[in-house]
Please model this.
Amino acid sequence: MTRRRLDGLSPDDTDLGAAMAEITRLVRAGHSLASAVAEVDRTRPTRTLRRVMVAFDAGHTLHDSCSEALSTSDSDDGALVLTGLKFAALAGGDASAHLEAISLTLDERRRARDDRRAQAAAATASTRLLTWLPVGAVAWTASSPSSSRDVLFGSTIGWLCLIGGAALNLAGRVWIERVVGR
Model:
């Protein structure tokens, strides 16, 4: 087997859940854990599995390869996979149920991340609408020949309402951006 390198072109871990599901399927089909990890790294590479295989190809055991990769893991999902693979390599036997649980956990985490992104996008869209709607209402009022325009722009209470509304609008926008940015 050729030695693999980690470089700037290494894949990321976005497909880690699917990779774990494939490792589980291969283990259930009778492959050893090491051969399943190697096969999935070849066909569906992820940054985490690539780190394991670099150490494995250098002659380390799968357990030691996972330990080495765990020391440089930069994601919670990667750490979960490496810990699970490390445990499965150490314990031996049929680890497919444990691997499947990890795969399901990764899928659930991905769905939760996707839901958070969708909710953040909805909050951002609502913020944009609620920011520009009052601006449009003020512009419409300013362009209409009516007594409400005279009150809004010709009196102290009107100017206080405009300034207060603008301040609340800006504060709401800043607040939502902070909440969504978390």
